[in-house]
Write a structure and sequence with these properties.
This protein is of the alpha/beta class. 39% of the residues lie in helices and 13% in strands. The strands form 3 sheets. The protein has an 8-stranded parallel beta sheet. Strand 1, helix 3 and strand 2 form a beta-alpha-beta unit. Helix 1 packs across helix 13 and helix 9 crosses helix 10. The longest helix has 25 residues. The structure holds L-rhamnitol (RNT) and zinc ion. L-rhamnitol (RNT) binds next to loops.
């Protein structure tokens, strides 16, 4: 099934407001062999999955809402969504500021699930989301929620020594995949189901192997039935209170995804501080068919700050584009900042991701590759450096104008 579904705009008609600036930019890029019209078309069609959990600080609608699993949303900015109507209203407001194909990434705790335990959830608990999303022409992605629950309070879920606890979470995982398969059927594009578990230990464990064997066998159970979804697994380095050992490490899931043919999720906050996801993409792309990116911004730890238009964001987008991976990499955002207006947090991050993709699509890759393969490293360097001062913001503004979205965000908090 095609991945390219979500809200979108018709790029083939209409011109923007800054025609002079744009016409100049078009010429400058043409000199580097880049067709900005083709870039604008391509940019608009790339799906980016917006994470619902920025809107309410990852609380969900079960009624309890304590966050554990070693993740934290900090800050007391007013306006966190208290119910599904408020959350949808905030998402709609964010969408009015965000150009391009946008998908929505739900967690299992965001269904109509007050009083429904995780091993009881069904597609009907998500019928409201499906109706609403259909009305917006927006596709849904999904995540099992294996944290913030009495049965995750010991820091172990799918790797727990108690078979009953493992069975509870396995059932949750299976049900989540079935719910996502209903999304796929309704929306005509495969729903991406990402599984992340916090399982680990605060202090140094004696036995590092047995929990991994348990996790592996639990996962085998969850993925036993083939369904029309894109299954992804997400590794992590450590969480708060789980500093010494993570069962689902990078090596664990890289191996597991390769063996089972699953997508590998790389979260930009889940590696050692000097490691970058942009440096991993081409290598892992040789061994897994699909990647999921959880684009986040770690500040000293996996702090999930709003993503900036920084060098690493552009490097990630550039690797995806240069390696020709746009149809094998699913791009999703994953951050939650409770200290600022949450609608603006979405809008800034979603627009930054798309700006990074624009910069990447404007890249003169074939000329650079040509110079590189002729060992003309002077030409490669000069071209790369001169290209950096080309006027990509003029193309961005033209794109926003054609998409009917503001070229610049309003500065003030919306809530
Ligand atoms: C946690 C993972 C995970 C979560 C979401 C809420 O470190 O990044 O993806 O952020 O599932
Ligand atoms: Zn993540």
């Amino acid at each position: 099934m095609s991945m390219n579904m979500g809200t979108g705009t018709n790029m083939s008609t209409g011109t923007g407001t800054n025609t002079n600036m744009y016409e100049l930019a078009k010429e400058r890029y043409a000199a580097f062999g880049i067709d900005t019209e083709a870039v604008i078309q391509a940019l608009d069609a790339i799906p980016i999955s917006m994470h619902c959990w920025q809107g309410d600080d990852v609380k969900g609608f079960e009624g309890g809402g304590t966050l554990d699993g070693g993740i934290q949303s900090t800050g007391n900015h007013p306006g966190a969504a208290r119910n599904v109507d408020e959350l949808r209203g905030m998402i709609e407001e964010a969408l009015s500021l965000i150009p391009g194909q946008t998908r929505l990434n739900l967690h299992a705790i965001y269904g109509d699930v007050a009083g429904v335990d995780r091993n009881q959830i069904e597609p009907r608990h998500f019928a409201g989301w499906m109706d609403w999303a259909r009305g917006l022409g927006m596709a849904l992605d999904f995540n099992p929620t294996l944290f913030g629950h009495p049965k995750s309070s010991q820091g172990l879920t799918l790797a727990h020594p108690d078979e009953g606890i493992r069975a509870f979470w396995i059932e949750h995982g299976k049900r989540c995949r079935r719910i996502a398969a209903c999304f796929t059927e309704a929306q005509g594009s495969s729903s991406v189901v990402n599984l992340w578990v916090a399982d680990g230990f605060k202090d140094i464990p004696a036995d590092t192997l047995t929990p991994r064997q348990r996790l592996q066998s639990s996962l085998d159970d969850i993925y036993a039935k083939p369904l029309d979804v894109v299954d992804a697994v997400e590794s992590k380095l450590f969480g708060i209170g789980l500093e010494s050992y993570t069962v689902g490490s990078h090596e664990f899931y890289l191996g597991y995804a390769i063996r089972k043919g699953l997508a590998l999720c790389l979260d930009t906050g889940h590696f050692h501080p000097t490691e970058v996801v942009s440096a991993k993409i081409s290598a892992v792309s040789l061994f897994v068919e699909r990647l999921l990116l959880h684009v986040s911004r770690p500040v000293r730890w996996d702090s999930d700050h709003v993503i900036l238009l920084d060098d690493e964001l552009v490097a990630i987008a550039r690797e995806v584009v240069r390696c020709g991976l746009l149809d094998r990499v699913h791009i999703g955002l994953d951050y939650f900042d409770g200290s600022i207006d949450r609608v603006s947090a979405w809008a800034v991050g979603m627009r930054n991701m798309r700006k990074a993709l624009l910069i990447a699509l404007l890249d003169p890759m074939s000329a650079l590759r040509d110079a590189e393969w002729r060992f003309d490293f002077t030409r490669r360097l000069v071209m790369m450096e001169e290209w950096k001062s080309l006027p990509w913001p003029a193309v961005w503004e033209e794109y926003c104008a054609r998409a009917g979205k503001p070229a610049q965000l309003p500065f003030g908090a919306r809530r």
